[in-house]
Prior knowledge:
The chain has 31 helices and 14 strands. With 946 residues, the protein is α+β, with helices and mostly antiparallel strands. Helix 23 runs antiparallel to helix 24. It is elongated and about 150 Å long. Mean pLDDT is 83; it is low at 688-706, 770-780 and 941-946.
Amino acid sequence: MEMFAVDDDVAQWELALLPLRGVARLPVLLPLAWHLRQRDGARAEAFAAEALALLPQTRLDADACSLISARLHLVQGEARWLHGRLDEAAALAAQALAAAQALDDPAGCGDAHWLQAWIAVDRGEHRRCDEELALCAEAARGAGDQERLAVAEGASARWAVLHDPRAAAARWGVHFARKTERLSLAAATWISDYMGLTASQANDFGAAASHYIHCYESALETGQLRAAIIAATNIGEDFCILNDLHSALEWMQCALDLARPTGWPRSIGACLMHTADTMRRLGRMDAADELLREALAILAPVSGARSYAIALQYLGDLSLDRSQHSSALEAFLRLQGRAEVLNQPDFLSVARRGQAHALSCLGRAQEALDTALDAVHLAAEEGNAHHHIAALRVLALIHSQHALPPPQGMTALNPPLHYLHQALHVAATVDGYIVPGDLYEALAHEYARAAHYEQAYEMALAASAARERTHSQEATNRAIAMQVHHQTEHARAEGHHHRELAASEARRAEVLQQTSATLERLSAIGQEVTTHLDAGAVFRVLNRHVHALLAANTFVIYLCDPDGARLSRAFGVEDGLSLPENSLPLDHPTAYSVRCLLERREIYLENTAHLQHPVAAVTPGTQVSVSALFVPLLAGERVLGVMTVQAMHANAYGERERLIFRTLCAYGAIALDNAHAYRQLKDAQSQLVSQEKLAALGSLMAGVAHELNTPIGNSLLIASTLEHKTAELEVALNGPGLRRSELAAYIGDARKASELVMRGLHSAADLVNSFKQVAVDRTTEQRRNFNLHQVTHEIVATMMNRIRASNHSIAFEVPQLLALDSYPGPFGQVITNLINNALLHAFEGRENGRMRLEASTPLEGRVQICFSDDGDGIAPEHLNRIFDPFFTTKLGQGGSGLGLSISYNIVTSLLGGQIAVSSSGAGTAFTLDLPLTAPAHDPERAASIY
């Protein structure tokens, strides 16, 4: 699995998940939870929990389940890390790492080390961070994963810059320069971050902002939201230094807008503190102080992080600007403590310099002097010219405020001049560094105090020239800022475009989800409606779901009378009360239900108040409805009636509601047609079996009417054709004369028609007899003791003529003295069906097929009967469906699809046993496991079918 994915891939997974249910969701839940971990942490955790709950229901082996669990634990661990729950995050990361190591999953190991590295960062354990990132890179190399390797190297380089900029540039600069053209977006995030930080350290803030913008764009695209937030704050910092404070605040606000919805303390706190520092530079001290206090409170759970140290530095600088020297001293002391833990010398130098400044203003001269000297030493070791110059200027400030012994080796007129000249010397060693005018002004001021006016004048002129250069540099900075601002605007436009696309995709996904949920619900309703074979039950189910899904003050179902002359209200409900029966003639001039029936189309009345004939005129006894929808009940080409739903407000039924009602009407038409066919079948059976009480049949399938329609419909078509031919023959006979060839053709057609009619009617008769077998008759089947060998012999004997005619053979081996107390008739039906099934399906295109019937008693009180053949076997895709009613691969070739389903019902219901099947290319075997004594049955209750 990739470490990071782009937004388009995530959108595809989102859409793929919508129609899935149950265990089928797991293959999509896993990547979706992983790649949503920073995009939408709450949903990622929910998906991870759902996936973990589904794992025990899968057929995956233990190792695969363990790997999936480890990946999901990383999702949960990252969520806890981002929310500052570092101990919980570390425990989950360690658990995932142990599982990945045990199963030799280098990608999983690398991702666990990656998470542990960032947990270490937020704890302030930067050496541990470096170690974990090195292990992450090593795991990526082992997996041959170049993207993970580049990501780990980019993050390592980023932190190396903060430890030692020169060493980091020497090690990583050329290395990344060779990779820039083939970087993935995920890797570009971290390498751009490294390049931005490197440029900032080199005072190239325009280049730094450009690199950070690339970092921001790629981070957003790949779902690295925390990196995008950090990049946005860094861009704001660079614009602030370039004196484009408006753009700086815009980027700070952008970062804050990304961070606040997440609830991540480190990200929100970092955004607040950088915004506060920009406010300080703008002179808005109170606003800056408020933001900094909030930032420190939010960052408290991750006080070991570098962000917390930066917030302390900003608080110290703000306190100095506000002359709150005690607060400044406290802030810089706390910063020193964090700097020592972090092992980052830039913070330590800033902390000591700030302490020296505060101590001097508090009148603690000697402490201030010692601390400032320490700051100078640290800055010199660090090689940071800015920090070095700033520390020397603090030394000058201390000596100007207090009478202290001069430094050793002083050649200047006084200590302030000594340290200011040292600062000037350090500035001269930095290529491209423009000495600020206020440094020359400080020198001029000190020379004037010492009454050396000539040197004071020279320094004043130098200050003026420095200001000119500074103005030139500021102009350059503004030009750079404008260029970067243009890039920013471009990035913002691109970002807006992507957000619009994402929002559009989210809206489309929501519509698809709603549609999918509606279709799923309608599908379930359809199954419920069509399982009923009683019209009253169908009416009640439709009424319940119409009222649940639609605005329905009135719901009515009209059905055509048998004579086809009227529409009768078969069911009606208004405000929860039943409506009386009524009927409408089909020549009614204003009834919309009649019009809907005759025109066979949907009629929707948005607002009946404006109609000449309101709905109340054609629905006697009902309220005056404002909206009404009429839909015909169509079963194929036949119109059964009309369904109408009505509401008391206008425009009640939009396109979605009309789709729902049309679907319910379609299900209702099928169910009512099935109920009518079922009622006709019951009437036919009542006529066939007089004076005997039949047990109630189970729910016959919706395919009954269709199966009978085919042979009977064909017979009717052929009979009508024969009738037409006969009329033509009569015309010819009564006309000019009948030729012998015409009579011969008629006789030939009549013979063929008769054969087809007889074949169709025989097929229909066979289907009726098969349907009678579906619900096993528990009241008339004779139960008795019988010898299994004798009954089996009789069954095989009755089938031998057909077996021999097919050039196949059968052998049976049944113990002579095996007796059963059961139902020999239904048992014989099962064996006959198995033999017929083998003759029809097993030996296609070949002769000399062999069948075998065996019986044994492996357990006391039970008999196992095995019927096998050496035929072609059953296709794997059909094996799970062979017992389904009406399933056959020989439709129209002698197969009805009922033989095995009837056999299954007899074995599992009446005989009280089980039937199993196994098949391969060498043949098929059916195994019946039956009790020697069949279970007792309630003669008043019909057999349960399926």
